[in-house]
Structures are given as structure tokens and as C-alpha cells.
Amino acid sequence: MRVDVARLCTRRLSSWRPAKDATVNAFVCAAPPAAPTPAHLPLHNVSVGVKDMICTSDMPTTSSSAMLRDFTPPFDATVVRLLREAGADIVGKLNCDEFGMGSLNVHSVHGPVVNPFQAASDSAPWVDREKRSAGGSSGGSAAAVAAGMCDAALSTDTGGSTRLPASYCGVVGLKPSYGLISRWGVISFADSLDCVGIMAPSVARTKHIFDTLNVPDPKDPTSAPEAARHEAASRAARAWPSAALSALRIGVPHEYFPAELSAAVAAPVRAALARLRAHGATLVPVSLPATPYALGAYYVLSSAEASSNLARYSGVHFGLQVPAPAGTAPGTTASTYARTRTAGFGAEVQKRVLLGAYALTADAFDNYFLQAQRVRRLVRADFARVFRAGADAPGDGVDVLLHPSAMRTAPRLHGSEADTDGLDTYVQDVLTVPASLAGLPALSVPLPVEGDDGWPVGVSVVGPWGAEGVVLRVGEFLEEVR
Ligand code: GLN
């Protein structure tokens, strides 16, 4: 079922959408015209696109699902309110994988997002390039920023949905520490992992938006209190007091450079590490032995939470309701559920709901759900052992970890690389899910595009919980030593 996007929008996309977006398909709705904000506000003149899983009172919020095709929330999410109060111009809603489930932004009722990347050295118009994925699930957010259609974008990140598309499209993407940015008004996928992410062309602009959103929210029960934020930030600052590259200890986890890592990714990441070392940073080989188990644990836990979260879309309280066919008996409540959920959810969402519901059944609970929780604890313990500002605070620990954001560059949307249903797309998340399971801040920074492949590569900076100041500073160093 295809949603008629123009019908959904308060302002017809065709009258506003930059010509580029006709092919990129990043925007699903444009905001109604708004009065200019006062010039003294910190985000005055900053245009921000918002992932279509984040509620906006003046535009529909569909989560790229037929289930929510007619849903216009009566409120703004806290993050949207904070941006508006800071003077930002919210320009529209951005395409994504349905309910945030996917790595290629191909599971969307609005159609796939096409990667708009164009190398500076490339004279061919971007529309003539082969069509590659923008990554997912926040593909619209990454593509809109990469194509210059907005100054910054909000995304979400449950297991990598900010960092993977940022890496594929060549923009900066921040998944903040779990609990720092309010999730109130953000459509839930897996509550214990969901974070609002930020995408922008530079680390400085990412930081600007992050600073605006980094406040406790009494409406979000998982929002971290002020004291915890302050304590974490000062612990990180005490561990690296000079904030100089010469005093920075960078952990390089060998599990994040597996044999399957594409050479087009490994070479620029190793070159970036060498540049940082040449400028005085200390590189420390580290091991995070639970890493190979993180991906399986992530898919069990996120699907279990999704099956519970998405139970609310029953055809009774929220969203779509598919009535019994004309001339037939109204049927039971269960048949309304079944008709509505069969028509309203796409194949990927149905798969996750079934997988998650199974993992929570009495028969499977111990073997799947509990084991996955144990793996999650091991992943957390791995990180705590290596950070010098972490809970276990080893004196010879590191300030941040650096590793590739993705196993490869953006896959083609058509042909053999467009395997959108197979295990291969899940494997793309292998490098991003550990930080999600541990709730840590992770920033993907684009590296200079080089080599035969010629498509963007991102490097991820991961720090202890609440150490965004350190992670963003290291991101700036990466930009400075290009
Ligand atoms: N690709 C992962 C998934 O499909 C991550 C999604 C996300 O972070 N929202 O679950």
C-alpha cells in the first residue's frame, strides 16, 4: 500500500521540495510556512529536518508506516519544542525505515531514499550516479543533510540508525548517551535502546544542536537527572584534563577490524588513526571480547521490545483500522486486529513482531531473552574495563575508542547488493550495536573520500556514558587532521 504523500502534507512537497529531492526522496512532508524567529535566538536561521518518527503538531508523523498514514499528533515532541524555542526552522519530515527497523531505508511506505553523495572532485551531476542506499533507518535525515537540503536533522538510533546512514552519506551523526536527550513524543521501537540522534555537516553544528537538546525532561521517565549528567561530564574531564591531542589515549578494539571488513573502509580508518598518532595521540590496542555476540543479542532484545511496543497498533486505539469487507459480518476483535496489522505493517515489521513475540514466550524466554540480557551485561562490562573515566576506571585505560562505523560503503539499491531481506543487512549493524546495548555516546565522522570505491566512509568515536564533551572534541580533531 502506498501513501499519497501529497495528500498527507500540509504543504505540497512539489511546491517546496528542492529539485534534488525528487530523486533522493528524503522528505515526506514539508512544514507549513512559519514566521521568522527572532535573530537573537541561538538557532535562528538554522533549518532542521525531523525524522518522521518524531512527533510534530503541524505535520503528520507516519513512522513511514501505512499504520500511521493519517496520524497528526496534537503535540510536539520535547526535542521539537526545544528546537523551536531556540529559534530553529523546522522545515519538514524525513523518510525512514518503517518504525526505525532497517539498515538501508528501503522498508518505507514512502519508497526508498537514494544516497545523494557527490564527491567534490566529481563533475558528473549527482543524479547521474548509480543509485546507492542512503543507509537506514534514518536515511532521509542523512540524505537531506548530505544534499544540503537542511542545515541539520534529527534522527533516531536504536542499534545504529544514525551512525550507519551518516557513514554511507558522508555526514556527521551523533547517537548521544542513553537518557540524555528526551524521548517524549518519539515513536517507540525498543525503549531500552532508543535514542534521538543528530546529523549535520560538521561536528561543530552537531554540538550546537546537542547542547540545545541536552536537558532533563520530567515527561520522560528515562531522562537522566542533572546531577548524573554533571558527574559523568566532570569524571570524563578529570581523566583528560588538558583536552590536548598529545594527552589523548585512543583505544583501537581489534574485534572491530574483522576479516570481513571491506578494504575500502579499513584503509581510510587506519590512515585516520595514523594521522592522530602523528599529531601526538597514543593508540592503545584493546579487546572487547563480547563484541561477536552483541548483534544476536540486539536483534532478540530490540524485537522483543518492539513486539510489545507495537501491540498498541491494534486497529482499536491508534492508527489504521481495516473494517470487515462490505457485506460480511463484522467478525471478532481478533479478526479486526489481524486485518489491520496485516495491512498496516510491512513485511520487515511483521517479521520483527513475530520474532520478538516468540522470544518472550514461556518456551523461548530463558534461551533467547534472558541469554540476550546476559550478553548485554557482558558488552557493558567490556566497555567499563577499558575506559579510564568508566565505572571501573583503570589507570591505564583509554579516553575513547575509534573504529569503522560500517563494514562497507553504501550498497547499491538495485542488483545483487540490494538484498534487503537477507541476513546480510542485519550484519551491517555489527559495529554499531555494542554502543547501543551499553547506552554509550557514539559519533560517526566522515573521513576524506579516497580509493577506488570513491564513496564515503565514517569512523566512530565511542566514549563513556555522559562523555559527549570528549567524544565531540575528538570528532573535531578528526576534522582538523584530515
Ligand atoms: N538496523 C537496525 C535495526 O534494523 C538498527 C535500527 C535503528 O537503530 N533504528 O534494528
From TrEMBL:
Q: Which reaction does it catalyse?
A: L-glutamyl-tRNA(Gln) + L-glutamine + ATP + H2O = L-glutaminyl-tRNA(Gln) + L-glutamate + ADP + phosphate + H(+)
Pfam families, from UniProt?
Answer: Amidase (PF01425)
Alphabetical GO CC annotations of the entry are:
glutamyl-tRNA(Gln) amidotransferase complex; mitochondrion
Which residue ranges does the record assign to the Amidase domain? 38-472
Which top EC class is named for this enzyme in its record?
A: ligase
Q: Cross-referenced InterPro entries, in alphabetical order? A: Amidase, Amidase_dom, AS_sf, GatA
GO BP field: glutaminyl-tRNAGln biosynthesis via transamidation; mitochondrial translation
EC identifiers of the protein: 6.3.5.7
Q: What is its main location?
A: mitochondrion
Question: What is annotated as the active site?
Answer: 51, 137, 161
The question of whether Protease is a record keyword is answered with: no
Tell me the protein family, please: Belongs to the amidase family. GatA subfamily.
Function of the protein: Allows the formation of correctly charged Gln-tRNA(Gln) through the transamidation of misacylated Glu-tRNA(Gln) in the mitochondria. The reaction takes place in the presence of glutamine and ATP through an activated gamma-phospho-Glu-tRNA(Gln).
Quaternary form? Subunit of the heterotrimeric GatCAB amidotransferase (AdT) complex, composed of A, B and C subunits.
The protein, known as:
Glutamyl-tRNA(Gln) amidotransferase subunit A, mitochondrial
Q: What is the lineage of its organism?
A: Eukaryota, Fungi, Dikarya, Basidiomycota, Agaricomycotina
